[in-house]
């Protein structure tokens, strides 16, 4: 009897164990089916093995900022460029000769120029060690300071900011080298009477971010930038009016879709630069619900900073924000969740992936300046991937399908490789990289021989069927149509015109892809 009792109990437990094992096996198999790539390697340390094609491409891309420089050039390495716009700002008693032309023309637009500086600063802060490993950090710092020097001079008093130099309508009536400009270059300023929240806030973001870059290089310059940033943010926040409302004529150039994103973006950078909790409260408790569009993925650009802010603030959630309140932490969690929603939209195998892609695999959002959004999105993907690696975050879920940091990196590489020539046209959209790239870039200076004296009316060079006599090295052109085609024609500004702000996010993307490396947990 006793033996039978224990035998029956042992048999029962055996059945239970077998059933439990089957359940566990089924769960594991189910998770494996749902997981895409949940592998996670060790946290990388300092820059390791260099991926040469990305290092070479970065070296090329950074040269475009030298091409775009205005003012009295120092150590000029672009043979066909010279001094230009030396009297910019003189009518207001200011030196606004520096800065950069935004694209193929010769206007200095404050909003995209400041965005260029913010992104350049972010790249240097995250990937400066990688840039240094391939001897490109000094070039990036030089380009950044050329812009921030201009921004400092453009902010002569607390509530005055000069946001534009040159008349776009007049400029577009000319086709000439910048060295030959003789037409009037009027100034536009925002002030209390005619505010411009977006430009003031974006400039504040640029100066706050740059103050972190220069903190260990030139502390007095860093302090000056931070002072300007704080004053500009106060001005932007106290006078909430879109600059295209104050100046309606500017709507046909860089029209703004709203200023809430720039206010969040600026406050986020000011929190990183100062550690002042009031800025953290501003972006989480006070204004996150109103301006951030939590849960709604958006595209990062010179106009819309929401997704950039989501990712920037996600680093605080992933790495831990010091002394943050429960309410602030909840806000940071919402930024992180929205960042993950953005990432889910980018990955081609995600159930919430955007379907708007070319057959060649490029994200495709807009036919005008088509590369703008895929490059910027890929930059954010690399950043978020490295945040995950550094914080030892193994994965995130897209409607139940699991993805890892390596999936984000592979996506970003696919977009970078498309740009560098792995596309149906077999063309590099980065001018000067590879054997085949656009020859008729829509760019005044590149299209006219340096020896020509055209005056304003050099339109024969716009219409010329020949390749540009000067190579705008580093220019990232607008990019392909939805069918992956590209028309290399100087008059085709939709596809053939480069911009500094596209170059800025490309530099960020390439810097992140040079090698896999951990990022700093704090910018201070």
Overall description:
The chain has 524 residues and is mostly helical. It has helices at 2-34, 52-61, 63-67, 110-133, 137-153, 168-171, 197-213, 219-238, 243-246, 260-274, 277-286, 288-291, 306-319, 326-346, 372-391, 405-419, 444-447, 459-463, 493-496, 500-513, and strands at residues 108-109, 161-165, 187-190, 396-398, 401-403. The protein has a three-stranded antiparallel beta sheet with strand order 1-2-3. The protein has a two-stranded antiparallel ribbon with strand order 4-5. Helix 15 (372-391) packs antiparallel against helix 16 (405-419) and helix 16 (405-419) crosses helix 20. Mean pLDDT is 91; it is low at 1-35.
Give the SSE map:
Blueprint: H1 2-34, H2 52-61, H3 63-67, E1 108-109, H4 110-133, H5 137-153, E2 161-165, H6 168-171, E3 187-190, H7 197-213, H8 219-238, H9 243-246, H10 260-274, H11 277-286, H12 288-291, H13 306-319, H14 326-346, H15 372-391, E4 396-398, E5 401-403, H16 405-419, H17 444-447, H18 459-463, H19 493-496, H20 500-513
Antiparallel strand pairs: 1-2, 2-3, 4-5
Keywords:
524 residues; mainly alpha; three-stranded antiparallel sheet; 20 helices
N- and C-termini, Cα separation: 76 Å
Sequence of strands across the biggest β-sheet: 1-2-3
- Taking all Cα atoms into account, the compactness measure Rg is 25 Å
CA-based shape: globular
Instruction: State the total count of DSSP E strands.
Output: 5
Helix-strand string:
HHHEHHEHEHHHHHHHHHEEHHHHH
Could you list the spans in which at least 5 consecutive residues all have pLDDT below 50? 1-35
Strand content: under 5%
- Please report the number of helical segments: 20
Structural class: mainly alpha
Q: Level of helix content?
A: 40-55%
Q: Mean pLDDT, as a whole number? A: 91
Q: What about the largest sheet? A: 3 strands, antiparallel
């Amino acid at each position: 009897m006793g033996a039978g009792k224990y035998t029956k109990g042992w048999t029962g437990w055996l059945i239970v164990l077998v059933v439990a094992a089957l359940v566990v096996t089924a769960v594991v198999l189910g998770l494996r089916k749902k997981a895409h790539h949940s592998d996670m390697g060790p946290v990388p340390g300092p820059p390791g093995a260099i991926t040469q094609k990305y290092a070479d491409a970065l070296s090329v891309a950074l040269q475009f900022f030298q091409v775009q420089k205005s003012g009295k050039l120092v150590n000029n390495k672009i043979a066909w460029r010279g001094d230009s716009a030396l009297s910019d700002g003189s009518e207001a008693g200011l030196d606004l000769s520096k800065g950069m032309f935004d694209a193929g023309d010769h206007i200095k637009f404050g909003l995209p120029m400041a965005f260029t500086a913010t992104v350049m600063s972010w790249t240097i802060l995250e990937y400066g060690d990688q840039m240094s490993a391939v001897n490109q950090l000094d070039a990036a710092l030089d380009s950044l300071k050329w812009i921030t020097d201009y921004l400092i001079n453009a902010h002569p008093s607390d509530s005055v900011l000069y946001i534009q130099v040159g008349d776009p309508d007049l400029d577009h009536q000319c086709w000439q080298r910048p060295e030959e400009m003789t037409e009037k270059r009027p100034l536009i300023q925002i002030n209390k009477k005619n505010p411009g929240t977006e430009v003031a806030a974006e400039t504040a973001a640029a100066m706050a971010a740059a103050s972190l870059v220069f903190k260990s290089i030139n502390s007095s310059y860093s302090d000056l930038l931070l002072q300007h940033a704080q004053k500009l943010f106060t001005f932007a926040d106290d006078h909430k009016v879109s600059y295209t409302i104050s100046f309606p004529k500017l709507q046909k150039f860089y029209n703004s879709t709203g200023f809430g994103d720039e206010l969040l973006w600026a406050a986020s950078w000011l929190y990183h630069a100062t550690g002042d909790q009031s800025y953290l409260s501003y972006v989480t408790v006070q204004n996150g619900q109103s301006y951030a569009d939590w849960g709604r993925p958006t595209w990062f650009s010179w106009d819309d900073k929401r997704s950039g802010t989501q990712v920037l603030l996600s680093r605080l959630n992933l790495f831990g924000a010091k002394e943050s309140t429960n309410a602030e932490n909840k806000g940071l969690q919402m930024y992180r969740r929205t960042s993950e929603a953005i990432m889910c939209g980018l990955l081609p195998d995600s159930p919430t992936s955007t379907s708007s892609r070319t057959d060649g695999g490029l994200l495709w959002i807009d036919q005008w300046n088509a590369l703008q959004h895929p490059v910027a999105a890929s930059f954010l993907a690399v950043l978020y991937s490295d945040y995950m690696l550094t914080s030892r975050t193994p994965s995130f879920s897209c409607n139940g399908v699991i993805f890892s940091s390596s999936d984000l990196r592979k996506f970003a590489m696919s977009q970078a490789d498309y740009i560098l020539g792995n596309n149906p046209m077999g063309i590099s959209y980065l001018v000067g990289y590879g054997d085949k790239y656009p020859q008729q870039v829509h760019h005044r200076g590149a299209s006219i021989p340096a020896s020509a004296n055209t005056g304003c009316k050099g339109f024969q060079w716009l219409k010329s069927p020949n390749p540009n006599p000067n190579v705008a090295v580093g220019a990232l052109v607008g990019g392909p149509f939805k069918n992956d085609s590209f028309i290399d024609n100087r008059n085709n500004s939709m596809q053939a015109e480069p911009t500094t702000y596209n170059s800025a996010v490309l530099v960020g993307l390439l810097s992140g892809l040079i090698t896999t490396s951990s990022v700093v947990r704090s910018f201070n």
